Amino acid sequence: MEHERPDVERPESRDLLLPVCGVPPAYSPLLSPTRFFPLSGEPSPRQTIKRGKKNRLIRTWYEQRTATTAIGVIVILGVFFLVNWLMLSRLHEGRVWLRKGFAKNTYQIPKWVSSTQNVEVRRFGKSKRKHNGTYDRMLDLAAQALLENKREPKELWQEPKAQALAWKPCADQRSWSPDDGENGYIMVTANGGINQQRVAVCNIVVVARLLNASLVIPKFMLSDVWTDASQFGDIYQEEHFIKYLSPDIRIVKELPKELRSLDLEAIGSVVTDVDVMKEAKPDFYMKHILPILHKNKVIHFVGFSNRLAFDPMPFDLQRLRCRCNFHALNFVPRIQETGALIVKRLRNSSGSYLAPLDVHLLGPKSASSLILHNKSDPPARKKASSSISSKYLALHLRFEIDMVAHSLCYFGGGEREQKELDSYRQKHFPSLSTLTKTKKFPSPDALRTEGLCPLTPEEAVLMLVALGFNRETRVFVAGAHIYGGNKRLAALTSLYPNLVTKEKLLSPSELQPFKNFSSQLAALDFIGCAAANAFAMTDSGSQLSSLVSGYRIYYGGGKMPTIRPNKRRLSDILLKNNTIAWNVFEKRVRKAIRQTKHVFARPTGRSVYRYPRCKECMCNDQ
């Protein structure tokens, strides 16, 4: 997979589930010894003394009240179990009555429904059908709906404009003087795919300003998953990066000669992800990293990713974060030029137009190619073609094998699928593979019910049809190597014949320079998604989807909607696939998606890259 590791940014519901599985929450402090936390989780000696005195007082009080407390607890427990037994008895009687009542209903289950789809009782007491990975009945209904060729809903390609237009980009505004970087040099080797690397770069820029350090141009780690040797300068414009951020921090291309020969690991200047907790606050860096910088004049962060908190964060540092992401990181010209070819061919074969973010995304030169016409075209044709607004939908189908394996969900492939995903986990996610053997995880059906499974291509196409996208819609699918291959994509391609990928839009010669560089291919997907008239994601925890949706908010001018499904609500609807009527399915899906398109300011603690509507990144006219 060329985009990102699946365990970097997960939906909130995943965080709530992990403690049950025996895995620490995503944002908890480290629970094992580290360099800066030798016995992480244990109190300091002073805290231990204070707690000891307090514990002795509490123990004495409890000893005096033991008899009374024990009797009270026994009485309370007795009442609790009695009431619980009565409620369960009544519930059982009700279910028996319901089963008898439903037996009189003559609804016939279609022959294609698997006999394995039995009723399962959720932990919340609601009965749900098990998921067998197929949606034959619903796909037939979707095909019929498309054949009717209904008019698309008015708001399908729109954002709530009044609220969205009130937010304007303003992260380029500065209110400070540049730092001289006199405390030393910061190096970073970012891990993951292109999208984690982008986040790491923006975070390290803020850390460099915080510590008044000079930043060495970031390096990217070679991963055995992505096997891409691309470095910063292969993807982003180095000179623009250095120049644009020069009023904020000092950036150099390499260390001074006197520091290059140092054994950084031997002198304690190498800091890994193990040493820094997720979402570490600024005071962590001031307390633990700055002293090393003062002593050795150089720090090397290895594997640096989401190691900087979003809140609390000083206003100007948060704004610097946004400035780096939305202004300083421009793709190199060859990526911009090829991206412009993709966008032009998606919008219209004879002519195109400029969207609000095209110039920022593609650069002035490549963006201008979107509206150039052949010299031989007559003036009337030039005028007509320039006025055409050929819309396309981008779909980030996050269904590669890494995501599928990490989710622990079931997708209908039987024993072969389970063995294949187990083997992948053992190789690429060994810690997760070990946990699955030593800890009890929720069942695949329970995970699906809680919205913790990535949407399959079949579920994605059902969502699109229910929303009202007609059969002629141009659909650009981003992502690489969909798990299950063309067979898994069959439902999408049969219902939306105008479906394309970058591989279909570009000729072999145009694609050749990027063929062995997954991160650069991911940059082309980023462009295709960001420039779309509407963008649909299938997993809100995906880094690419998060960065694309944030970019569209920042530069979209309130005219570039993003479809972000609530997977828990969508799962509840999809699990009724054997009985639900199409018109009911359609209404429920539209209602669920409409609620996710509301315009709101960034929630506290959430990513500014995904939610740039905040005073640090965007200014609100209202």
State the secondary-structure class: alpha/beta
- Strands, total number: 15
Average of the residue pLDDT scores = 82
Note the main sheet.
Answer: 6 strands, parallel
Radius of gyration: 27 Å
State the end-to-end CA separation.
42 Å
State the domain count: 3
| Multimer state | single chain
Q: Any idea what the shape is?
A: globular
**β-sheet strand percentage:** 5-15%
Q: Give the number of helices.
A: 26
pLDDT under 50 segments (min length 5)? 1-5, 7-31, 40-51, 88-128, 374-389
Helix content: 40-55%
Salient structural properties:
622 residues, alpha/beta, 3 domains, six-stranded parallel β-sheet, five-stranded parallel β-sheet, 26 helices, 15 strands, globular, disordered N terminus
Please specify the SSE layout and strand pairing.
Blueprint: H1 12-21, H2 45-64, H3 66-103, E1 119-121, E2 127-129, H4 136-147, H5 161-164, E3 167-169, E4 185-190, H6 194-210, E5 214-216, E6 219-220, H7 232-235, H8 238-244, E7 251-252, H9 257-260, E8 270-272, H10 282-296, E9 298-304, H11 315-328, H12 333-347, H13 358-368, H14 379-386, E10 392-396, H15 401-407, H16 414-428, H17 430-438, H18 444-449, H19 457-467, E11 474-478, H20 485-495, E12 499-500, H21 502-505, H22 508-511, H23 518-530, E13 534-537, H24 543-555, E14 562-563, H25 567-574, H26 582-596, E15 618-620
Parallel strand pairs: 4-5, 4-6, 4-9, 5-7, 8-9, 10-11, 10-13, 11-12, 13-14
Antiparallel strand pairs: 1-2, 3-15
Helix pairs in contact: 4-19, 6-11, 12-13, 12-23, 15-16, 16-17, 19-20, 19-26, 25-26
